[in-house]
Amino acid sequence: MIEKFLKKVGIAKISSRIFLLLILMAPGFLFAQDAAAPAEAGDVLDKADTAWMIVASSFVFFMIPGLALFYGGIVRSKNVLSTMMHSFVAILVLTLQWTIIGYSFATTGDNPFFGGFDKLFLNGVTIDSMQGSIPEFVFFVFQGTFALITPALISGAVAERVKLSGYIVFILLWSTLVYDPVWHWVWGGGWLAADGAIDFAGGTVVHLISGIAGLAAVLVIGKRKGDASTIMKPNNLTYTLIGSGLLWFGWFGFNAGSGLASDGTAGRALAVTLIAPAAAGSAWMLLEWLHTKKATALGAASGIVAGLVVITPAAGTTEPMGAIIMGLIVSPICYGAILMKNKLGYDDSLDAFGIHGVGGALGAILTGVFAVELAEGITSRGAQVWVQTVSVLATGAYSFGVSYIIAFVIEKTIGLRISEEKEIAGLDSEIHGESGYSI
Would 316 disulfide with which of 91, 200, 209, 304, CB 3.0-4.6 Å? Predict the structure, then answer.
């Protein structure tokens, strides 16, 4: 009944009603603006920190077109535009979500599990509002770039067979029901933060939960049509190599900016963000050569990203030697996870789960092993590893459960997977009416 109704009224009518509702709501929020609370003691503007965080925000934003290139080069030519559009669409719709509800739901409130609604539409945030030593607007943008790229990572799992409308609804719901609450648990003073979990730049908050969400969505919509040799043939590995380089470039801001200051911790995070991917990329090429007698460009790019993922939660607490070891460990683990997907029978198109899910979980646990500074109140390395493991299990289970429900409901209503005929023809022509390449 619901599916027939939605087909009858059409997505356009629903979208227009939602837009009208937001327009009607906006004046109430505008007139309800409260004066910004006075800055707390110690919240003094630091120009160096502010300048660095503006640069770091720009770096992280630049990762999104890097991700589009990375993913776009791996798919078939008939789906390259569609795949790249998933990243750019995330910028558009999730910037609005983060502004309207996401920032408030993640960062405010005293509840250990869910955030509050005090800053809907950035209510109360002014040019005088501070977040530590930087303006709150800068903090909003920096964290907003994380909120944009995290759901875009999920698109790699469902590439080449997902409807654009279903994808948009999925990432909007997922950001609100999964990303924002987990952000609050770990970075917003929630229960995992209180337990002492260390996640400097997003091993669980970004990579684990997005990779797990991709796996859940894949289990709902099933495999792509066609034979494996045709499906897995990349259309442009040049794009993928350039994309991995742009991701690495942006990741310097991703990790080194997560301390919100221009200081020694940022410098160390910058260093290990160079070191870990180099170790992981080298290890991946060696593994491929031992396994297939070839060291591929796709393998090198995959190893680089795996190294970036694994060091992310540990970037603020790990020394260079730890970064090398983590990079060397993550490649065989992720390489094995990717090989296992064929045996287990799920179609993670671009290995979002194999690299981001598995690499994020591994990085979060290894953070407890290699952290030179344990969390406040934790006196032993074993206790820190246990807390890290709990954080992985909790965030992973929560993301999988909610993501599966979201994907299932969308598939049964408006549809998450495109029709077989359109999938065979190609998403570029069927969804966008365009082609990535002129023939």
Answer: 200
* Helix, strand, coil shares, percent, the chain, to 5: 75, 0, 25
Cα–Cα dist 362/429, whole Å: 39
Q: Alpha-carbon distance 311 to 334, whole Å?
A: 14
Is residue 392 within 8 Å of 212, Cβ to Cβ?
Answer: no
Whether the pLDDT of residue 10 is over 60: the answer is no
Q: State the CATH class of domain 48-432.
A: mainly alpha
Distance CA 271, CA 256 (A): 9
Average pLDDT, whole number, for the chain?
Answer: 91
Neighbours of 89 (CB within 10 A): 18
> Residues 28-80: pLDDT tens digits?
433 333 433 444 545 899 999 999 999 999 999 999 999 999 999 999 999 99
Question: Tokens 């190294």 appear where?
Answer: 307
Residue 134 pairs in a beta bridge with 131
Q: Distance between CA 60 and CA 247 in Å, rounded?
A: 8
- Which residues, 6+ apart, have CB-to-CB distance to 306 below 8 Å? 277, 280, 284, 330, 331, 334, 355, 359
Q: Which of 273, 391, 287, 368 is nearest to 329 (CA)?
A: 287
Residue reference for tokens 């969804």 = 431
Q: What is the pLDDT of residue 228?
A: 63
Decide: helix, strand or coil at residue 371. Answer: strand
Instruction: Give residue 226's pLDDT.
Output: 76
| H/E element, 241 | helix 237-256
245, with CB counted inside 10 A (0-12, 13-18, 19+), is: middle
Please spell the DSSP secondary structure of 281-305, one letter per residue. Answer: HHHHHHHHHHHHS---HHHHHHHHH
Name the pLDDT band for 16 (thresholds 50, 70, 90). very low
Residue 229 above 80 pLDDT?
A: no
Q: Strand 134-135 and strand 130-131: pairing?
A: antiparallel
Q: Please say whether the beta carbons of 154 and 70 come within 8 A.
A: no
Structure-token match 């299932």, residue found: 408
Query: pLDDT tens-digit profile of 358-393?
Result: 999 999 999 999 999 999 999 999 999 999 999 999
Q: What is the pTM of this model?
A: 0.90
